[in-house]
Amino acid sequence: MLVAGVDVGSTQTKGVVIDDDRRILGRGITDTGARLAEAGDAAFRLALEGAGVARDDVDFVIGTGYGRFRVEFGDAQVTEISCHARGAAHLFPRTRTVLDVGGQDTKAIKVGKGGEVLDFCMNDKCSAGTGRFLSAASDALEIPLGELGALALTARNPVNVTTTCTVFAESEILGWLARGRRTEDVVMGVHQAIAARSFSLLARVGVEPELTFTGGVARNQAMVALIGELTDLRVNASEDTHYCGAVGAALYALDRLLVGAPAAGEGSALR
Amino acid sequence: MTGKGASGIAPASSELKHAGATRREGRRLIDQWWQELSAADAEARPVANVFVMGSIAEVLRAFDIPMSFPEIAALQTAIRGKSMDYLLAAEDQGYSPDICAYVKVDVGLHVTGREHPHGRLPKPSLVVSTNMCNTYIKWSEIWERMYGCPLFVLDIPGWRGTGFEYGVNGGSFRSDCAYVQGQLRELIVMCEQVTGRAFDVDRLREVMGEVNRMSEMYREILAENKNRPAPFNSLTEGVVHMGVANAYRGHPEGSRFMEAARDELRERVHAGIGPIPDERFRLLFVGPACYTNFRRFVEMFEEWGAVFVAAEYASYGGGGLDRGIHYDLARPIESLAEQILLSSQTSFSGIFHSHQWQTGVVRDWSVDGICFHGVKSCRTTSTGLPDAREWLMRNENIPGLFIQSDLVDARLWAEAQLKNRIDAFFESLQGRKASARR
Predict the structure, then answer these.
(1) CA of B375: how far to CAs of A47, B372, B409, in Å?
(2) What DSSP state is assigned to residue A181?
(3) What strands lie across the sheet with A2-8, from one edge to the other?
(4) Which of A90, A214, B265, B299 ranks highest by number of CB atoms within 10 Å?
(5) Which chain B residue's Cα is nearest to A110?
(6) What confidence score (pLDDT) does residue A268 get?
(7) How far is residue B94's CA from residue B106's CA, in Å, rounded to a whole number?
(8) What is the pLDDT of residues B25-51, one digit of tens each?
């Protein structure tokens, strides 16, 4: 029995295929872009290829993420909040708190023993403190996004980035450079600003160990280190935490097939 | 609207004696109220601008002064999809995007010729304000400068200490009451000057008697939603009750409306009819509503089978009627001062004590969770909502959802983000219900 989860996020779309032993057989990732349905389809196709199976071999698919209703081949939809909680508890079973920093959203989620959502807090209608903030820094500094974390860790005297607007952050970054501050110190300042915003959300739901960091920004070593320092906890993060939403969606799909339980999101109108 | 009666068969609406009374009569009364305001403007008769919290309608009604509520006028423009036209007109005048959006819609109406979707907004001859909202006084000063009309500000002593024990036996209650009575007498003199009529205390007693009656009915209306299924949505139909409660406070037509609305609800309860076919979740709504996308906002909850069975809005937007007003007609001014003090304390102290009221509603109305709706342009009603939510989660294990949009500023509506939070909340609630069954 095979199931899949497809997470159409604001920046990237992820897909995974798992078997009835909850093993991840294939993963797929692509940039979301403007065509959400196509992105969902592409990530699913890549996950199928990785698993070495055909589309018809998959018995149930759940879509998640902002574009979940555009996963047209999906059988049901669940929010990424529920899916990240479920996925994190699967990858790290002692997870009680999840921090998901994605392209436009940051979520702090309090998780029960079975991976169920007990409470959650999200950033307001503003992308400050999300992955988009790092993208703005990457563009302004002309440094690839994937290299920012390593560069930040070499900082000795980080600047204090005070702006709360992602658009204005770019001019603040340039302002610091114009004043002669080292690039790594500016980059670390950006990381610290994001970490501080994430920590306030975590504080609102209450941080309990273990803390699992999910979403695209979980691949950034500097962010993982900063969140660990602020919470005074060892932070769970791995390559698969980037796929956490899709993993959680696939697990809900498996529930549906194994025990006939409705997936958490079923019951809502599909719009 | 569907549901099943005791027989298990959903009765046709036509079989119900009172079906549609609330909607039909509510619409008629609001139209009539606007016609009266527009007529008063055309005939240059005195009109008072008053606010929902602390309208002091009893005194104004005793002088037959028509009352214009700028908050209600503003929300009506949003329901009609027109609020941005007025709001942007005010911003063109230099009003900041960060201030109360109701103020800007109102200013926009005044600077563009006072043509409102429901009629012509009158010029105020008198402004009656209170300190119950920290924007009211500055807002009133705009009209004072624009039209040169007299401004009366009722200063209500607030109680913001710990331990919410304020009442008729409270430490400073008698002196506070004397202070408010003195101000009410000043307002009466001002009304005599504006209308050229002498004050008639028996007319005031009549009006206060109608408020007593209306309050009794209003409480009975709210209590009907303790039934399963709840017979009405406190946000959508509740706004109709609130509109009439404000515009017709102390008027016999207002009391008659409340009685008819209550009878319609009792009939629905008897027939097992609710606002949606299958009530799965019962929610308490905290904060003001989002009027720019009023129908869609409620739909996002109804899609999950959720009904707002109670709303804090019905309390502070209902002018204290929910508390149960029993004016002593033998000593009208003193009794009015007492009720103003008692009903305003809940609003003054809400930021510190609302969780106590919310806990009681959750218990008495069998609520599954609370939706806290923060309004971006109104800090008065939004401050403290996340704290109340956290307190109730941690201490009472009551699930809470915190979302934000605005009353009338359409730029602050982000449907994808709202829906994501709402759906996640219900996924969690669904999980809790499933666990409770196991």
Answers:
(1) 42, 10, 10
(2) -
(3) A24-31, A12-19, A2-8, A58-64, A76-77
(4) A214
(5) B428
(6) 43
(7) 14
(8) 999 999 999 999 999 999 999 999 999
What does the pLDDT average to over A21-43? 95
CB contact under 8 A, B303 and A79: no
Cβ neighbours of B412 in A, within 8 Å: 125
Kindly tell me the number of DSSP H helices and DSSP E strands found in chain A: 8, 10
What is the Cα–Cα distance from B156 to B176, expressed in whole angstroms? 8
> What's residue B172's pLDDT?
84
Which residues in chain B (392-411) have CB-CB distances under 8 A to chain A? 393-394, 399, 402, 404
| Over residues B168-197, mean pLDDT | 93
CB A161 within 8 A of CB A182: no
Contacting residues of B for A265, CB less than 8 Å apart: 423, 427
Q: What is the pTM of this model?
A: 0.90
Give contacts of B 295-334 with A, CB under 8 A. 303-305
Query: Hey, what are B8's tokens?
Result: 């298990």
Residues of chain A with a CB closer than 8 angstroms to some CB in chain B: 66, 78-82, 116-122, 124-125, 204, 206, 261, 264-265, 267-269, 271
Contact state of B427 with A264 under an 8 Å Cβ cutoff: yes
Listed by start position, the domains of chain A span 1-77+243-271, 94-237
* pLDDT tens digit sequence for A13-25: 999 999 999 999 9
| B309 to chain A, closest Cα gap in Å | 19
pLDDT beyond 80 at B384:
yes
Using CA coordinates, name the residue in chain A closest to B424. Answer: A79
Closest C-alpha among A15, A11, A30 to residue A131: A11
Contact present, A14 and A27 (Cβ < 8 Å): yes
Measured between beta carbons, the chain A residues lying within 8 angstroms of B423 are 79, 265, 268
What is the rounded distance in angstroms from the CA atom of residue B76 to the CA atom of residue B240? 11
B368 neighbors B399 (Cβ within 8 angstroms): yes
Q: What does the DSSP assignment read for B352-363?
A: HHHHHHHHHHHH
Interface mutation target, options B392, B415, B427, chain A, most CBs of A under 10 Å: B427
Same fold, A1-77+243-271 and A94-237: yes
The model's pLDDT over A213-259, given as tens digits with 9 standing for 90+, comes to 999 899 999 999 999 999 999 999 998 999 999 999 999 999 998 87
CA atoms within 13 A on the CB side of B365: 31
**Directed axis angle between helix B252-271 and helix B21-42, to 10°?**
160
pLDDT at A159: 94
CB of B412 within 8 Å of a chain A CB? The answer is yes
CA distance B160 to B252: 36
CATH number of A1-77+243-271: 3.30.420.40
CB contact under 8 A, A204 and B390: yes
Residues in chain B with CB shorter than 8 Å from the CB of A124 are: 404
Does pLDDT of B4 surpass 50? no
> How much is the pLDDT for B3?
46
Secondary element (H or E) of residue B241: helix B236-247
Mutation for A interface: B279, B413, B430, most A CBs within 10 A: B430
Quick one: fold of A94-237?
Nucleotidyltransferase; domain 5 (3.30.420)
pLDDT digits (tens, 9 = 90+) for B330-354: 999 999 999 998 888 776 776 677 8
Question: What residue in B sits closest to A121 (Cα-Cα)?
Answer: B402
Say if residue A198 is exposed, middle or buried (CB neighbours under 10 Å; 0-12, 13-18, 19+). Answer: buried
| pLDDT averaged over every residue in chain B | 91
Angle between helices B136-147 and B101-111 in degrees, nearest 10: 10
> How many inter-chain contacts (A to B, CB under 8 Å) are there?
57
Q: Residue B438, class by beta-carbon neighbours within 10 Å (0-12 exposed, 13-18 middle, 19+ buried)? A: exposed
Nearest CA in chain A to B420: A79
